[in-house]
Amino acid sequence: MTTHRLAIYDMDRTVTFSGTYTGFLIHVAGHMAPWRLVLFPCVILLMLAYVVKLISRQRLKELNQALMIGFNVERAKLMPHVESYADRVIARNLRAGAVAQIAQDRADGYRLVLATASYRLYVEPIARRLGFDAVIATDHLSQDLRYVRAKIAGENCYDTGKLRMIKAWMASQAIDRAQAHIRAYSDHVSDAPMLEFADIPFASNPHKPLARLATERGWTRVDWG
């Protein structure tokens, strides 16, 4: 018997047109400490270091935040800029088709969950504006403290780690998988574990590797403008 309906969405390039993390760093640096913008070439170098596997994806995010925002930032000073960045995303970086599907899932009685590798710090304000019921995201070590540290708590919410975090969230909500019906949406092949976990997986605006996998697995493809 199905007692829980969940619609789980990736965020970057699924709900949004483009990634949000670099934009977040630039937005906050530009408002809080514009001098840090001169460090942006270092961000590009760190991205290259990640591509050639000199650093992990998790470490990349921590170092970029330390460069562009600071290793320790007072939350009260940071949050107005987090909120204004959420407003910017809503105004300029949403796929209309994704917004329509979110509304349809809500109308169909699904609980809306945003599951993303992006930081909870700025994902929650975006999710709140879109009417999501829950957020599963990468957490800061100081998530509930006065200062935001450039350090990730636990796992980066990515690939198999994202699926583990989804399962942990479901357990915390007393949601038995056998009694749940899950729709899942993503643009990227790294979310294959999440899509395989779903009852109805959607390859949403997929890049080529996911498009190929969706064809092989018979997953529905949607292309949202």
Itemize the secondary structure elements and their pairings.
Elements (H helix, E strand, L loop, with lengths): L3 E6 L11 H12 L7 H12 L5 H12 L3 E3 H18 L3 H12 L3 E9 H11 L3 E7 L6 E3 L2 E2 L6 H13 L7 E7 L5 H6 L2 E5 L3 H10 L2 E3 L3
Parallel strand pairs: 1-3, 1-7, 3-4, 7-8, 8-9
Antiparallel strand pairs: 2-5, 4-6
Helix pairs in contact: 1-4, 2-3, 4-6
Description:
The chain is of the alpha/beta class and 225 residues long. It has nine helices and nine strands. The longest helix has 18 residues, at 75-92. It is globular, with a radius of gyration of 18 Å.
- Portion of residues in beta strands equals 15-25%
Rg, Cα atoms, Å? 18 Å
Shape: globular
CATH architecture: 3-Layer(aba) Sandwich
Number of helices: 9
Mean pLDDT: 95
Q: Structural class from helices and strands?
A: alpha/beta
Provide the CATH topology: Rossmann fold
Low-confidence stretches: none
How many domains in all?
Answer: 1
CATH superfamily, called what? HAD superfamily/HAD-like
**What is the CATH C level class, in words?**
Alpha Beta
Main β-sheet description: 7 strands, mixed
Task: Give the helices and strands as they follow along the chain.
Answer: EHHHEHHEHEEEHEHEHE
State the distance separating the first and last CA atoms. Answer: 36 Å
Total beta strands: 9
